[in-house]
Amino acid sequence: MNPTDTSQWRGLFWMTVAVLTIPASDAIAKVLGQTLSIGQVTTTRFMIQCLLLLPLWLWWRHRNVRLQGLKLRDWWLGGLVASAVLFLFWGLSYLPLANNIAIFFVEPLILVLFSKWFLKERVSPRRWIAVTVGLLGALVVIRPNIEAYGWATVLPLLAATAYAAYLTSTRALRESADPSHWAEAANGLQKSVRLQLMISLTASVLMLMLMGIGQTLTPALTGVQWPTAHEWGLLILLGALAAFAHVLIALAFTHASASILAPVQYLEILGAVFFGWWLFQEWPDALTFVGAAIIIGSGLYIAMEKPHPDVIQD
């Protein structure tokens, strides 16, 4: 087998494992959200992820690998990721798992809009059509959910917006939003782990500040109570799965390009359907499946289409 083909298959394998891990962590967050505040679950998730990634970072530093320390941009990126996870977990406390994830997957479409507005990238007419169709698919998912769950339907949409803003910011800061660029550097995995460590560290600090402020303002969202032994086990598992998935995604991008790996991310919706059915007896209605299919199709087209000749590349 061609070495390039072997590397790509490895990338596909690691990416598949990662995206099937993420729905499991979301399901755990949904379970925890029934007894603990969403703010406490989100904060603990980042803190545990940080503690798990820290030894790896320290080991690389011990081997004289040059890794940058904390920077101002890490606080901005950490704030955006913290917002995305907080809104996503908040949505999970109201919406079925698959519905929540399906709405969140409008993120690639929002990213195209942000790239045009903030990075001044030129977008081909075909991509604009794909974005429009995808957003219409999102409306197909959102409309019946608004009738059933009310304002909470907006939460995964806010999560998608925050995450798209994070990816746009990484591009603007020359931390490419396309992780395939990391594969061009020998220390791509190290850079990714460093980025995830700094984000989880800053997100933890910012969430702790929010929790402190919110104690008197929004106790339902930011209340704190000592977890039971069972809850501690789930919290540790949640942080471990988050760290595990992000390391695997970084590893996947060191073996294969974004255009090859992009279709695999939509397995996350199938994983969400499975865990929602298995753990919560949730089954999406027909409109959710139709809307999700439209969103997936639009996202795949955007990911697979070759860049427009006039698109500004990093």
Gap between N and C termini: 32 Å
Model regions low in confidence, pLDDT < 50 over at least 5 residues:
175-186, 308-314
Relative strand content: under 5%
Overall pLDDT, averaged? Answer: 84
How many strands? 0
Radius of gyration of CA atoms, rounded to a whole number: 19 Å
Biggest beta-sheet profile: none
Helix count, per DSSP?
13
Q: What global shape is seen?
A: globular
Structural class: mainly alpha
Helix percent band: over 70%
What is the H/E order? HHHHHHHHHHHHH
Describe the secondary structure blueprint for this structure:
Elements: H1 3-32, H2 38-62, H3 72-92, H4 97-104, H5 107-118, H6 125-149, H7 154-172, H8 188-214, H9 219-222, H10 229-253, H11 258-261, H12 267-280, H13 286-304
Helix pairs in contact: 1-10, 1-12, 2-3, 2-8, 2-10, 3-7, 3-8, 4-7, 4-12, 5-6, 5-7, 6-13, 8-10
General description of the model:
The radius of gyration is 19 Å and the shape is globular. The protein has 13 helices and no strands. The two termini are 32 Å apart. Helix content is 74%, strand content 0%. By secondary structure, the protein is mainly α. The longest helix has 30 residues, at 3-32.
